[in-house]
Amino acid sequence: MAEEQFVKSVSEDRETTCWGCGLCLRHPSNAPVFKCGWCGAVTDQNLSKCKTKLLPWRRLRDQFFVCVLLIFMLFVICGGVWAVYPVVFSVSFSFGVFHSVLILILSVSTLLMFGHAAFTCAGSPPTIMWGSYPAVGKGELDDYIFCHFCSRPKSPRTHHCRSCGTCILDMDHHCPFIGNCVGAGNHRYFIAFLISAVISTIYVSIMSAYVGLHVWPPLKYRALGHLYGFSSDLALRTMKEIILALLSSAAFLSARGLVLVYLFFASVSVEIGLSVLLWQQLCFIYSGKTYLSNLSSGGAEGSGERDIQNLLRFFGCPYSCMRYLPTFYNVRKWHKK
After folding, report:
1. Residue 182: enclosing H or E segment and its boundaries?
2. Which of 15, 38, 278, 337 could cross-link to 194 by cystine, CB 3.0-4.6 Å?
């Protein structure tokens, strides 16, 4: 009886040509996924049945978000300089020159990192020989699958983005605000843009509040005239008085005052959102994962090795320095042993 079942199962096996090396594979007819024993390429019959769906509206959405973000950054830079310029130079000439240089540095760095993140290739997968047995060596396509959208092999660290229409190496996510994917080619630029943007928004919120106190003297003495000691109740009461004073005088503000109010609330809200995103990105890098790999692993704690050297490698720190910078981490590992 067992022999008859074995013969029946063998007879039901089907032969398929491996897309990776071209060898003939025999596998059960009900097996949707199988792996080549020579090159290691994985064939997923379910993926071969999917239809290519072009999503041109996503490109239009990305272009719209990029334009909105560029207009917002230019408005913050130009509007901030116009609103802050008279006050900072009225304090002292050196004070105004210092803040002018600081504004120039923050503006150029933010726009430059944004340009690199938006217009740099997110990461092309490596070009590898496939489809011919003599050319493909043993295990050269281990765990590779075939991308039916791009009609080329896709490594385990590569994901296909239907918004960009291509495969991205070490893809983290597709960001519509830069109109590009975040991958191996521009991930570092994206993190640098977030850091520069967070610092810039913190600076804008501080300077808009500082200049606002000089533009509205009644607000200055009403809200901050009692800050001789610090306590949580006093801080909450002060913030409440500032907000009430802003709302009560909003109808009588000049154009410069309205710009300052908008800059303060816009910079604070953007600062909070970008800080959360930056912290999430740094946590993924520290764990040696990306956003997509974290989703595929279901957020499992053990799916990535948590190591401070992951951060150092990501930011391009030389290996010679890595042995000395995280000395506290090496001591902790030695105590665990």
Report:
1. strand 180-182
2. 278
Q: Which two tokens stand for residue 35?
A: 């792996």
Tell which residue, 275, 268, 261, 273, has the closest CA to residue 205.
268
What b/e sequence results for 245-271 when a residue is b if at least 16 CB atoms lie within 10 Å of its CB, and e otherwise?
Answer: bbeeeeeebeebbebbbebbebbbebb
Helix or strand run (H / E) with residue 309: helix 308-314
What is the per-residue DSSP string for 261-277?
HHHHHHHHHHHHHHHHH
From residue 97, how far is each of 78, 89, 104, 152 by CA, in Å?
16, 8, 11, 55
Per-residue confidence in pLDDT tens, the chain, 337 aa: 434 444 444 445 677 778 878 777 776 666 677 788 778 888 776 665 555 555 677 888 888 999 999 999 999 999 888 888 888 888 888 888 999 999 999 999 999 999 999 999 888 887 888 878 777 878 788 888 888 888 888 888 888 888 888 889 889 999 999 999 999 889 999 999 999 999 999 999 999 888 877 776 555 444 444 444 545 566 677 666 666 665 655 544 577 778 888 899 999 999 999 999 999 999 998 888 888 887 776 655 544 566 677 787 888 765 545 455 444 444 444 444 4
Catalytically annotated residues: 175
Please list the residues that pair with 153 across neighbouring strands: 146
SS3 (DSSP) at 100: helix
Distance between CA atoms of 86 and 77, rounded to whole angstroms? 15
Which pair of tokens denotes residue 185? Answer: 């080619």
State which H helix or E strand residue 16 sits in. Answer: strand 14-17
117: number of Cβ within 10 Å? 25
